[in-house]
Amino acid sequence: NKRQVLTITSDLMPVIQVVYSVNNDEAAGASVEFVVPKDLGDGYVNNKLENYKFRFRRVFDQTAGQEEIFETIAQPVADRVLAGYNGTIFAYGQTNSGKTFTITGGARSYGDRGIIPRTLSYLYQHIIQDSTMVYTTHISYLEIYNNVCYDLLDRQLEACRLEDLPTVTIMHDSEQNIQLRNLSIQQSANEEEALNLLFLGDTHRMTAETLLNKASTRSHCIFTVYLCGRQPGSATVRRSKLHLVDLAGSERVNKMALGGQLLTEAKYINVSLHYLEQVIISLSESRAHIPYRNSLMTSVLRDSLGGNCMTTMISTISVDKTNLKESMSTCRFAQRVALIKNEAVLNEEEDPVLLIARLKRENQSLRDELAMVTGEPRQEQLTQYEIQKLEVQVKDFLEDTDPEATLALGTDLQKIRRCFTLLKVLSLSATQCLPTVLSQLIRDKAPNVDLYSTAR
Ligand SMILES: Nc1ncnc2c1ncn2[C@@H]1O[C@H](COP(=O)(O)OP(=O)(O)OP(=O)(O)O)[C@@H](O)[C@H]1O
Ligand SMILES: [Mg+2]
């Protein structure tokens, strides 16, 4: 239930790389080890240790491709979501380390598609092939920018600015469940529709050029797939959610030489990541109070952190000696996250409409059985449902050509009386119709009609 993996990206800037080694064949998983040179002046101050080793479920080195990342990380989560469990995959790491590349992908080639498009493709392929279940899928795309939530899937505006997007507010109900008011949840019947929604949301995302990243995503984004599955004819439905989260990059303000809007963004990003860290620390130390409500991001991801969800965290680092401090802090943070225990449960419930119909039927047959066993006439009136059922029974009985056919009414006197009344009404209406039928026949001078026997 707890997983954390690490991806290492090559740096795009001319750098002197830190010496590191990756080992994916350890009995307990994998590890990455940094060898810190003694004379490292501009980065990490290295007084005592030379080697720092961090253990993970899996470490992906620079040669790892998007397909491998998808198969190892996202596919198992997608399988659980299809089976009715909630899932979350989130990417955490310093700016320019490859979070957006991992979650959404790169635009250079088709092979650069990230976890979201690959997961959508996988989910819809499964949905098309599985004839034992009927699925409906919906999508939402939420952005948290400067501590305000925005709906990225708003279709009303064509070329819109972020401030024109609808803002989303968080409401807590009495059981501490959150409701996202004003977040549109769009139906997406197939992969193409889902990809169009992803594209629409991405065009609305807040990006900016920073010193380190030409297209730095300056917000936290949560792409959510809502899945509802049921077997045909069954009243039991499975509802599951998959959050795919691209966090804004942690960054050092002085290192980035930020000012103006970028500085304001960086402060909000750092504050919200600090609150995320507080939640993670409280959870990993099993404290009584977990400060989810301190930030919008932790409120929205409440279930993913220590709740009903299978959560996988991807930490991204950049192996450049100027980033060593950030890489170490990312690894330490990831190891804390791995201490959190989530409890994922199957989200199965009965559809209320189908459930009521089934309970009505059961209730009726139990009443019939009870009346049969006790032999006591019941006091209350027949219900509308019972009357309708009797009318169908009488109709079937009259239409049945089998002379042995019977009307099974049990011992309920009210039902027996009702059936007699029904039969009387039918008989009377048939008799009253007869003169009309006869005159019609005579008028038409219908050949081969034995009028005498018909009248008799
Ligand atoms: N595995 C990779 N292979 C090739 N290019 C990569 C890889 N990872 C990242 N990149 C490239 O590195 C640059 C930075 O990556 P990305 O934008 O994903 O970083 P980020 O962590 O999202 O940064 P920020 O927090 O600033 O948004 C991009 O140009 C991206 O295409
Ligand atoms: Mg990004």
Structure characteristics:
Kinesin_motor_dom, Kinesin-like_fam, 17 strands, alpha+beta, disordered C terminus, 2 domains, binds adenosine-5'-triphosphate, nucleotide-binding, 12 helices, three-stranded antiparallel beta sheet, 456 residues, ATP-binding, twelve-stranded mixed beta sheet, cytoskeleton, binds magnesium ion
What does this structure look like?
- By secondary structure, the protein is of the alpha+beta class.
- The chain folds into two domains: 2-350, Kinesin; 352-455, no CATH class.
- The chain has helices spanning 66-82, 99-103, 115-129, 191-204, 253-256, 260-284, 296-300, 324-337, 352-374, 384-399, 413-444, 451-455, and strands spanning 2-9, 19-26, 29-35, 51-56, 58-60, 87-93, 134-145, 148-151, 167-172, 178-181, 186-187, 207-208, 216-217, 220-230, 236-246, 310-318, 348-350.
- Strands 1, 5, 6, 7, 8, 9, 10, 11, 14, 15, 16 and 17 form a twelve-stranded mixed sheet that branches.
- Strand 14 (220-230) and strand 15 (236-246) form a beta hairpin.
- It is elongated.
- The termini are far apart.
- The relative contact order is 0.14.
- The model is unreliable at 11-15 and 445-456 (pLDDT under 50).
- Bound molecules: adenosine-5'-triphosphate and magnesium ion (MG).
- Residues 9, 12, 93, 95-101, 106, 213, 215-217, 248-249, 316 line the site of adenosine-5'-triphosphate.
- The site of adenosine-5'-triphosphate has 18 residues, from helix 2 and strand 13.
- Belongs to the TRAFAC class myosin-kinesin ATPase superfamily. Kinesin family.
